[in-house]
Amino acid sequence: MKKMLFGLIATVMLSVSGNAQTITNEDLRLQLSKSMVSLVNDLKPNYKSGMTYKDFTNVILAGNTNSTIPTTGDNLLRKAHSFLEKNTTENEILKTYNGQEMADAYYFLKDSKDAKEGAIKVFGNEIIEKTKFGQNMLDSRVACCKWLSNAWNWVWGHKDEIIEIICLFTTLC
Fold it and tell me: pTM to 2 decimals?
């Protein structure tokens, strides 16, 4: 009877550990691409055809041009701007985006106590506190800015599995 009980426990343990989902590099790249698609869609209303990056950020920052965007946030916005400028489709982003800039943002999210702290690390306190873009990013009820809360939830839901993999995508490790 004891052997049967231990055998049953061992079988259950093996089947549970055998079903554990492992995050692959491609899983993470696809997640980063989905977040980029979401960010590009969030920013689309701020972009007009032919707009320079400087004009684009001036619209996003609502004229707070004295604000300095940290490198990570600047790179993220530059990449989103380049996708908008080229009129890149969602499918093209999903298939071709390597995840570099979004991985840098995820890197800051993984060590933040909440989405707001992560957003401030990526975009800077002034932008998060003083612009509609920043405030919308923190308000999960605002339809336009779900990328941050989705990224935050995904990072924290898979934190243990992605720490090493994320370093393959980011220059920050």
Answer: 0.74
